[in-house]
Specification:
This protein has one helix at residues 2-9, and strands spanning 14-22, 27-30, 39-43, 48-55, 61-63. It is mainly β. The strands form two sheets. The protein has a three-stranded antiparallel sheet with strand order 1-4-5, with no helix packed on it. It has a two-stranded antiparallel ribbon with strand order 2-3. The longest helix has 8 residues, at 2-9.
């Protein structure tokens, strides 16, 4: 299963970013940039995140969460 997760995550490409954004509403944080990713936790309205990239395929943001 680990190999499948690696292959699946490599199907996404990202444009690097360096920005601070705030959650507009409560949202799930996932391991992949779509709803098939494992739920890692969540953000509440106005939570601050440091954006490190945006997925070219889905538009979802990559950001630092719990040190990773």
């Amino acid at each position: 299963m680990e190999k499948a997760e690696t292959e699946e995550s490599s199907a996404y490409t990202f444009t690097d970013m360096d920005a601070t954004k705030y959650a507009k509403s409560s949202v799930n944080v996932r391991s992949l940039p779509d709803t098939s990713g494992d739920k890692l936790g969540g953000l509440n309205t106005n939570d601050e995140v440091h954006i490190t990239g945006q997925c070219n395929e889905t538009g979802w943001f990559r950001f630092e969460y719990n040190g990773s």
